[in-house]
Amino acid sequence: MTFQAVPDTVEVVTDYLMSGAPTANVLHFKQAGVITQGALDTLALSMDSQAGVYMLPLFCDTQSYVQCRVRDLRFQDAMTASSGTLAGTGSLAAVQRPNNVSLCLTLRTGLAGRSARGRWYAQPPCGDQMASANIVTTTYRDALLNYMTHVRNAAAENGWVLVVVSRFHNKVRREEAITYPVTSVVARNLRVDSQRGRMPAPE
Hints:
By secondary structure, the protein is an alpha+beta fold. It is 19% helix and 35% strand. The longest helix is centred in the last third of the chain and has 20 residues, at 138-157.
């Protein structure tokens, strides 16, 4: 598929290892004005800090945070940055749920329509983070929302706004992607979902 530009926008990929399998979360941020290599380097360091301080403590000892990678989405041959200064393995002595098990957070933009909202699938919970077979605790949910709040605030301090990227309209690929600023991040309930892309391939 040909490259599709996203004006004034970068992609932040947070890499993890869950029971030895690579997984990731992807967010997008927009900044008005000139995007420089220095701005990408600063954002990578900032997102690395949020993952290490607010996400890693939620992990058990089979879960690891690896790094944050940033890519300029304006051009095909684009600037990149990365940081894994706070990479590490979780310390909770608990059993991780399967890799596809996830609490899904919704990124709201104040607009209706599937292309105007986003989803963020947390890494699999473990141990006492589950209140029952299919329900996470409110403490775990609140910790994830706290992480996202710190991510948004840290980005804003450097001039970035969390956005949802829309690449299609009525199932037709746009010539150039558009973005919607995120106005809130919510957990619609405490029930876990399945992130099918993280399920192990059959042997």
